[in-house]
Amino acid sequence: MTSGQPLRQGGETTLTIAQVAERTGLTHDTLRYYEKAGLIERVGRTTGNQRRYQTADLAWLEFLLRLRETGMSIADMQRFARLRARGDATVPDRLAMLREHRAELARRMRALRRSAGALDDKIDHYERLLDETDEQPGTEETT
After folding, report:
1. Which of 19, 53, 105, 113 is the most exposed place for a label (fewest CB within 10 A)?
2. Buried b / exposed e across 110-133, counting CB within 10 Å, b at 16+?
3. pTM for this one?
4. Contact yes or no for 20/58 (Cβ under 8 A)
5. What is the DSSP string of 77-113?
6. ∠ at Cα 61 (40, 13), nearest 5°?
7. What is the mean pLDDT of each successive set of 10 residues along the chain, which is 143 residues long?
């Protein structure tokens, strides 16, 4: 079996670490770290001890990437993963975590919009200065 082909295992198509790395953009080392850090549950193995990821693993990794991209700390991601592993009884706790994270993300987005506005104002200021310099007598380009 080539590493580029998914493998059927127990009726479900599984993926190698290389395939998951390609699909997620994570490195092999990061995928191993995520497993060691408890962000993902222990990944199934072949008889040759090669990692084989299930479809659910890939979906979970993609969600972790959204959490990371939105600035959730590894510690909070680990806490969320531990809650998830404990099952449906933790849904209220997970919901509270996500609501809190979403509120923080909204605050950061507002701050970034303010900062972008300040940058736009400064860019406009410098462009006006350049335009005024170009309009001064004796500064015209000759072609």
Report:
1. 113
2. eeeeeeeeeeeeeeeeeeeeeeee
3. 0.75
4. yes
5. HHHHHHHHHT-GGGHHHHHHHHHHHHHHHHHHHHHHH
6. 90
7. 50 85 94 94 85 92 96 97 97 98 98 98 96 72 47
